[in-house]
Amino acid sequence: MLILGIESSCDETAAAVVQDGKRVLSNVIASQVKVHGKYGGVVPEIASRKHTEAIIPVILQSLEDAAVDLGDIEGIAVTRGPGLIGSLLVGLSTAKAIAFARGLPMVGVNHLEGHIAAALLLAAPPSFPFVALVVSGGHTNIYLFRDFQDCTCLGQTRDDAAGEAFDKAAKLLEIGYPGGVVIDSMAKLGDPRVVAFPRAMRDSLDFSFSGVKTSLLNMVKKQGRLFTEAELPNVVAGFQEAIVDVLVQKTLKAAENSAIKRVVVCGGVAANSRLRERFYQDGKEKGMEVFIPPPVLCTDNAAMIAVVGEQLLTRGKRDSLALNAVSRWPLELQS
Ligand code: KG4
Ligand code: ZN
Predict the structure, then answer these.
(1) How far is CA 169 from the centre of its chain?
(2) Fold of domain 128-292
(3) Which amino acids bring their CB within 6 angstroms of ligand 1?
(4) I need a labelling partner for 113 at 20 to 30 A (CA). Which of 77, 202, 230, 325 fits?
């Protein structure tokens, strides 16, 4: 099946054409990073307006890159939630319009399931069941994933998401946006052992990242100034290590507890080079197979949405034109 995927849940407008849930023929992503950068975070109202401007050109580009036209497309997969409601509505309305005009089947996709499905685009994809860590700007969840639309949440954050902690820390340190990307590259120049940060909730599979963020804030307050350029690399390396440590330990623990040897790591923060390195290293030591999509398929994209769409449409699922967007949509409650 040739599926057109559409994603607009946050600040990336994306469209992709994927064949048989495996071959990515195109993957177009229009980022709004520059627009939101000056505010240090995504401004929902601006995000929806920018989606409105970008959505049609992005879809046309995805068809052109795939060397197909709308007449070749056999189904449409669109992110229905969770996400910013105004942003989601732009993608969803566009998907509905195309489905109606072309008489195509359309299906709404859970963004988190999309992130997990990105791992199925790997040359050697994981088989079911597996444990999946979805770690992004909005979520930090561990799932036991048995099949599409069949999972159990084993752990989640009680406060900030890991990506949110990176973004807030970078804002506090005044080092740029988006925080995760800036901290990832700056941390490479530092030593994570110099500045110590706390690891919270050691005995649980749930996460809490507010403590590590407060600890950074207290350091700045105590010294009454921001860190110098010379101090920053060690500070961000220590901060990153504290977050990476708990993500790796809890996910591998969840897999061990479930007697599962396959672990998928996905979502924007899975683009982090230290997190990838630690997962491969620690996973190997514990005899686990670790599957992490390439960075471009970790951050928001529409190819991952098309992969889920292929599965759902093949299984006969169809959504009507009455489908609405949802800002909250727990993955385990969707079937
Ligand atoms: O999945 P995503 O693109 O959007 C959401 O669904 O939230 O994730 C965005 C998050 C942001 O918080 C961003 O700072 C983080 O992913 N991120 C990273 C890296 N690249 C993106 N965090 C750490 N290291 C990175 N290299
Ligand atoms: Zn995402």
Answers:
(1) 19
(2) Nucleotidyltransferase; domain 5 (3.30.420)
(3) 10, 136-138, 163, 166-167, 178-181, 184, 267-269, 271-272, 299-300
(4) 202
